[in-house]
């Protein structure tokens, strides 16, 4: 029975990669209704731009990272190896996918360990579910000699998955234990359905200091799991959740919450990243874009993609006359279309975003 379950888990990991790759070109971006205003008279040049960032007590050379994707099968071991090589060559951080399979079957540990083997000095994020007991999570951390632990929360995905979890009430206590007993930084991450401000506030009450909003717009795990079902019974959840842009906007009235925000989910360009930084993100996670380039054109093409993103980011900061992530938060940002409707419904003063020098502006 255990062997059969192991095989099913490995098959599911491979299916996730295939379905995520095939769906990438169909994905849009949630940032189109945001317009950031630059200047024609910048006072800085590219050498003045400093894009270092920090979160969870760690420092990073670049404000974006390879977000959690895969691991747990022979095929995905090769992908993790290549992603780790890409991270090493481009000097960005990397998260592995959920390590649950390796915690249930030690033979699969190598599919994750390979990331540290090929990137011995890079920043690597381990990845577990709140379902995983803290003692086992420590094994996941050791597996990678991880610098940070991502805890993914994904009730929508689990409910669509036939073999997924059905009870979630114990997650609160589980997260409390993680905060108390894990001795490396923790990030709680959604897997593509976003977080509203009340969820982020609850996480902060539990002691979570860093949150990856993981918004709708990138890999859609509700759709992926629904496609794996023969009955397609969860078609109605295809559009479930908040986009990354909506999640970021929903936090604009919560400046006193004291939570570090990371943005992922549908981040496709340097411009998307800059808009996320403007709304308070300390870094941006990318998965689908890098996986697509890797599988379509190979590792060197993926490295080139990331190097181009770096160059594009620096150029955008010059056009915004901003030397760093702190200064870019003061650039005017226009909210329109459906995002404006969202702001009005959630009582978010979007006019302040367009006129940051007049923070006391009222409608």
From TrEMBL:
The keyword Isomerase applies. It holds the Pfam family FMN_dh. GO terms for cellular component: cytoplasm. Keywords: Cytoplasm, Flavoprotein, FMN, Isomerase, Isoprene biosynthesis, Magnesium, Metal-binding, NADP. It comes from the Bacteria. Its main location: cytoplasm. It catalyses: isopentenyl diphosphate = dimethylallyl diphosphate. Substrate binds at residues 12-13, 157. It is found in: Cytoplasm. Its cofactor is FMN; NADPH; Mg(2+). Residues 158-330 form the FMN-dependent dehydrogenase domain. Mg(2+) binds at residue 158. The keyword Transcription does not apply. Its EC number is 5.3.3.2. One of its GO terms (molecular function) is oxidoreductase activity. FMN binds at residues 68-70, 98, 127, 189, 219, 266-268, 287-288. PANTHER family: ISOPENTENYL-DIPHOSPHATE DELTA-ISOMERASE. Belongs to the IPP isomerase type 2 family. Involved in the biosynthesis of isoprenoids. Catalyzes the 1,3-allylic rearrangement of the homoallylic substrate isopentenyl (IPP) to its allylic isomer, dimethylallyl diphosphate (DMAPP). Homooctamer. Dimer of tetramers. This is Isopentenyl-diphosphate delta-isomerase. The lineage of its organism: Bacteria, Bacillati, Bacillota, Bacilli, Bacillales.
